[in-house]
Amino acid sequence: MNDSHERLAKAYRSEKPRFLARLRAAGRSLEEAEDIVHDVYAETMERLHLVAGIHNLPAWLNSLLTRRLIDAWRHDRVRAASGETDVTEDTLREIISAMGLDPHDAFIRDSLLEALNDALRVLPAAQRRVVEAQVFGGLSFREIAETTGESIDTLTSRKRYALRNLSRALRHWIEE
Predict the structure, then answer these.
(1) Which of 42, 61, 82 marks a domain boundary?
(2) In the structure, what pLDDT confidence band is assigned to residue 90 with cuts at 50, 70 and 90?
(3) 22 touches 64 (CB < 8 A)
(4) What is the band of 18 on the pLDDT scale with cuts at 50, 70, 90?
(5) 132 vs 159: CA distance, rounded Å
(6) Is residue 7 domain-shared with residue 23, that is, in the same domain?
(7) Same domain for 21 and 44?
(8) Residue 1: pLDDT over 70
(9) Are residues 171 and 93 in the same domain?
(10) Distance, CA of 94 to CA of 159 (rounded, Å)
């Protein structure tokens, strides 16, 4: 097992720059590329007992990386087809000001806070825990994954679903 760990560590040191460059060339941000490379190595660590039987470890890691990249492209395509977009904080400020809402107005702020708390309460527990850990606890996906034992992909999916549900709930609040 120790030999497998050393082989994986050596492969990580030697192949990480090449994998990052490949992911960056495929249009991924540096942060996304690092997350994908980390996920590949974390997955391999979970299956460390298999490493001894792998003759060409860098090639095997490359195939895992290729699958992760394909999954990321599929995810991007599904997001684009569903019309889902990332909304920046500046965009939210523009929407609020265009609607004539002053976020400093105590009534608006209290009403929005109440609507947000109601929306958080009705989220499924798993989704609520991820949002609370990130927003209120300031934890990264990696830190949450380490404490819960769940994969980063699972946690990001839960957060995505939670944000979608919160967005719907707040959209109803704005329409009222």
Answers:
(1) 82
(2) low
(3) no
(4) very high
(5) 10
(6) yes
(7) yes
(8) no
(9) yes
(10) 24
pLDDT tens for 107-123 read 666 777 777 778 888 88
Tokens 């109601």 found at: 118
33 and 108 co-located in one domain? no
Q: Which letter, b or e, does each residue of 51-89 get, where b requires 16 or more Cβ atoms within 10 Å of its Cβ?
A: beebeebeebbbebbeebbeebeeeeeeeeeeeeeeeee
Residues 50 and 73 placed together within one structural domain of the fold: yes
Render pLDDT for 19-66 as a digit per residue (tens, 0 to 9).
Answer: 989 888 888 888 888 888 988 888 888 888 888 888 898 999 989 999
- Does one domain contain both 69 and 133? no
Structure tokens at 67: 């699958």
Sign of the dihedral defined by the CA atoms of residues 168, 169, 174, 175, in that order: positive
Quote the domain boundaries for residue 94.
89-175
**pLDDT at residue 83 greater than cutoff 60:** no
Over residues 84-105, mean pLDDT: 58
CA dihedral 33, 38, 44, 48 (to 10 degrees): 160
Alpha-carbon distance 111 to 138, whole Å?
A: 25
Contact 63, 138 (CB under 8 A): no
Count the Cβ atoms, other than its own, within 10 Å of residue 110: 10
Number of domains making up the chain: 2
